[in-house]
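Protein modeling request. Please complete all fields; requests missing the sequence field cannot be processed.
Requester role: graduate student
Desired output: 3D structure, token encoding
Chains: 1
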Amino acid sequence: MDETRPGATVVREALPPPTLAPMRNATGTALLLPDGLTWEQWEQLGPPVLTAASGAMWWAGDWYQYAVTHLLERDEAGKATSASKARLRATIATATGVEYGALKHARQVAGKFPPVRRRTLLAFGHHEAVATCSNEMAETLLDWAEEGVTDDDGNWRIRSVADLRAERRRREATPVKEVEAGETPDAHTPTPVTVSIEVAPELAAEVATLRPILEHWRASGTITAAAFELLSRMVDAAEKAGKAAAGGGRSGRAAA
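Delivered output (256 residues):
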């Protein structure tokens, strides 16, 4: 029975803030939320959950980098010994279950961008997209992505990783230098090469499977970053040609 006298101020004890203790609330495949959360408590969980999600690849790269920097045994020339590298690979395989290539890739991106250079507004994928650029170009492109864009409805958003990759390709495109009559082209000037990709209508649906395969190759370390960029451009062209083929009922063609 509530014996609070009329007119008295009722002081309600605040609910304790929800926690994200890893061993209590999360597993490798699920986030286990307790029953009875208020809307406010559920909302409070958002930032740490999303921070953990976006930070996972950074953490993986930093974890791997620590072993390389501090734990690997090295010979007189400063090179890591074969035995210590084998131990590191075995640890990754048995203790984490993560593909070695994927973890090595995370370490490469983390090594390219030390903590002081990582943009909190941007995802790991943004940094990954420019990891093979020079430091100056990488910073310029990350600035561009961080500036964001405003859509037709007035909503501002960070530029996506796809936007950033496209912008990088645009900036890296080599302008074609016109050669005057009787002039010899500069032997050091790269010659642009255009690759035309044609997709038959019956193969248009298969084009959609190319991107996941390419991403898997990148994550597993099967291909280099440079090869990924080249193949990514070809996949972009294949996707355009595939859409043209699907919509027109005849073979579609696009240039990479």
